[in-house]
């Protein structure tokens, strides 16, 4: 039987693309920075206004965090993508 140390659970990482209501950037940033598991918010170009980087311990935690994001005043649409594998470069 594998030892307990052999069961290494990686954190769940995800990117949540968000569309904002007009003039709501500051409100959204103030609210989401209070939510545990949210690492940062980046303003982006394209079909979405921003991307929230997420890191949690489990898929259940991701679901609970997502429910909180949906309730944030000013967020009108989301599109969440779970990171399957991450390659880090120097």
Topology (elements, then pairings):
Layout: E1 12-20, H1 25-32, E2 38-43, E3 50-56, H2 59-70, E4 75-82
Antiparallel strand pairs: 1-3, 1-4, 2-3
What does this structure look like?
This protein is α+β, with helices and mostly antiparallel strands and 90 residues long. The chain has a single domain, classed as 2-Layer Sandwich (Alpha-Beta Plaits), CATH 3.30.70.920. A four-stranded antiparallel beta sheet has the order 2-3-1-4, covered by helices on one side. The longest helix is centred in the last third of the chain and has 12 residues. It is globular. The model has no long low-confidence stretch (mean pLDDT 93).
């Amino acid at each position: 039987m594998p030892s307990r140390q052999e069961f290494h659970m990686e954190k769940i990482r995800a990117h949540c693309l968000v569309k904002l209501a007009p003039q709501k950037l500051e409100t959204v940033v103030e609210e989401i920075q209070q939510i545990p598991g949210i690492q940062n918010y980046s303003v982006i170009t394209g079909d979405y206004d921003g991307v929230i980087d997420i890191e949690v311990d489990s898929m259940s935690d991701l679901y609970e965090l997502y429910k909180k994001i949906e309730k944030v005043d000013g967020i009108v649409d989301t599109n969440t993508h779970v990171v399957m594998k991450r390659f880090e470069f120097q």
